[in-house]
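Try it yourself: sequence plus fe (ii) ion, in.
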Amino acid sequence: MTTVDSNSLRELVGLVAHDPADDSFPVNGWDAVVWVVGNATLTAHYFRTVFGMDLVAYSGPETGNRDHHGYVLTSGPVNGGVRFVITGAVDPASPLAEHHRRHGDGVADIALDVPDVDRCVAHARAAGARILQEPHDLTDEHGTVRLAAIAAYGDTRHTLVDRSHYSGPYLPGYQPRSQPAGGERVFQALDHVVGNVELGAMDQWVDFYRRVMGFTNMAEFVGEDIATEYSALMSKVVASGNHMVKFPLNEPAQGKRASQIDEFLRFYQGPGAQHLALATADILAAVDTLRAAGVEFLATPDSYYDDPELRARIGHVRVPVSELKARGILVDRDEDGYLLQIFTRPFGDRPTVFFELIERHGSAGFGKGNFRALFEAIEREQALRGNL
Ligand SMILES: [Fe+2]
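Structure, out:
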């Protein structure tokens, strides 16, 4: 998805200048987030009607695919924005049925748009990555797509896609469908995808993305100082050269509370994608739309907004704080600017993958300040009740 309005994207997801010529594993951006779910038909309907995505392509028994359903949905600019592919088994013997039995609803593939699949795979192989699929072409009347796949954490994979010689709606085997969003558009781009990995594995995966894919560390990390006190997780962030693709990686930490990462690892049966941050130009409208459609968000205590210390930290943002408070939207601020964010409750039946909505105003962070702020705010309330 390269032909995007670069100005709006730059703001939405915080892009930086980058020369792909001196990149051993150049990445243009996201290609698709491929989900495996228990009911692709209903899930696709949900993303169309609730999250305001357009259905653009379909694969299934009617198109000669007797194994599974695949629904391709997009949000954001034409030829850009976000592509979700929702897949679910039709044939009980489909590998997708087994994937779903093991992991529940989740992200199986974070596919990346690359200009040179073969160069990427050669570099990945030399760096010791596990190649799941060698480079190969798929062709139909719309042209040719070149693809390969490498293994990431757990059962997650990165398919590498060069669709520069292809004009179809997704991949050969998919037929165009034109069903516009059934609800209001709520997001325009994908900001980051967070991976949860096992205790002690975070640095190993940071190293993987640096070594294999040439990603670089972003400044934000949550170390033991914050982790052990408040969040029960440790986190580092790696990003592609242009910062289009950002992967925070979490591992559990021993904290005051049972680790949310441990819970994920237990119910997902291993490492996997924990949350997808959807970039929106208007988080207030997005939250109102989603909430009206029944999407549940994590609650934020009133003290988060009323506490003078926190109020000072929030500073001046584009709307009155009362508007944020009414919706439970969080603010994080750094030297470059601020961001507004909010998290949904888990998306499926298991306490695993969920969504974040994020509206950036200069900040390149991920909301680290909210870890401490939120837990401190909760503790102040606890203390008021005499329970701390
Ligand atoms: Fe996030």
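One thing you can check immediately is this: The mean pLDDT is 91.
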